[in-house]
Amino acid sequence: MPFPNNRPQLQDLPDLPPQEIAALPADVLVVLQQESEAALKQAKAAKARLDGALVLKYGAQAAEVRRDAGKDTGTVRFADGDITVVADLPKRIAW
After folding, report:
1. Rounded mean pLDDT, 68-90
2. Backbone φ and ψ of 89, nearest 5°
3. At CA 83, angle to CA 77 and CA 86, rounded to 5?
4. Whole-model pTM?
5. In the predicted model, what is the mean pLDDT of the chain?
6. With 70 as the cut, is the pLDDT of residue 2 above it?
7. What is the pLDDT of residues 12-67, one digit of tens each?
8. Which residues pair with 85 in a beta bridge?
9. Across-strand partners of 40?
């Protein structure tokens, strides 16, 4: 399989068999590992930012729906237009 820059890119890896990835030169594997770690770090930061925004947008409404249902924790559902928002607040054990 021909690759741009003579090496597979991160987006190519899910389609490659592990044997083909293992056969790559060590310097290519190092670059791919570094790129995957950077992409994972960026994705985690983006998810954290999105999760924070969702709490800002729906946290108070979820708490109100939970309170109206007589629940301190658990899952509640409510609508935002055509979207069903599912808000889960797991029970945390305090020792």
Report:
1. 94
2. -120, 100
3. 25
4. 0.73
5. 93
6. no
7. 999 999 999 999 999 999 999 999 999 999 999 999 999 999 999 999 999 999 99
8. 78
9. none
Q: Which residues pair with 84 in a beta bridge?
A: 79
Q: Which run of H or E residues covers position 13?
A: none
Identity of the residue numbered 39: A
Looking at 69-92, list the stretches that DSSP marks H as alpha helix, in order from N- to C-terminal side: none
Letter string b/e over residues 46-82, b meaning 16 or more CB atoms within 10 A of that residue's CB: eeeeeeeeeeeebeeebeebbeeeeeeeeebebeeee
Buried b (16+ CB within 10 A) or exposed e, 22-35: eeeeeebeeebeee
**Which position has the token pair 């310097």?**
27
d(CA 22, CA 73): 46
